[in-house]
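User: Study the fold:
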Amino acid sequence: MTTKILVSACLMGHAVRYDGRAKPLTHPALERWRAEGRLVTICPEMSAGMPVPRPPAEIEGGASGKDVLSGAARVFEITGGDVTAAFREAAQNALRLAQETGCTHALLIDGSPSCGSGVIYDGSFSGTRRDGNGVTAALLKRAGIQVFSDREIDRLVESLAAPVA
């Protein structure tokens, strides 16, 4: 069976980011996987009914997606709105889609409080980045899905090319 890959919609050129823009990723592997029908595209936030555009959101002070999932942290918009429930729902939607379509890997946009898979913002809305995972990335990892950031696409290519043990 061909491995399916869950991909952030913004990386595939969809204008779904908080600012109403896309952040398309170009790589020969993406084109090949698209042609092979291996890509499953989602914007977790849109799947939970969040609008485009929407206010920027960050996980509160030094916490991560794992903390949001456990109830130890929340996600706030720059306007002060608490969007924790929407981000949890978004993560559940992404996991459900990944499981229903047989995705064993995910390629997610880094920096996002949802999809960040290595780097997220620190919750101060100052542009300061730190190591950590967003809510969706944390839930996918917890479920055993291998998660890669857009900066790690070559590692994803290597992972998919490696023989299964």
User: Anything to note?
Assistant: The two ends are 15 Å apart (CA to CA). Helices lie at 28-35, 44-47, 65-70, 84-101, 135-142, 153-161. The longest strand covers residues 103-108. The chain has a mean pLDDT of 96.
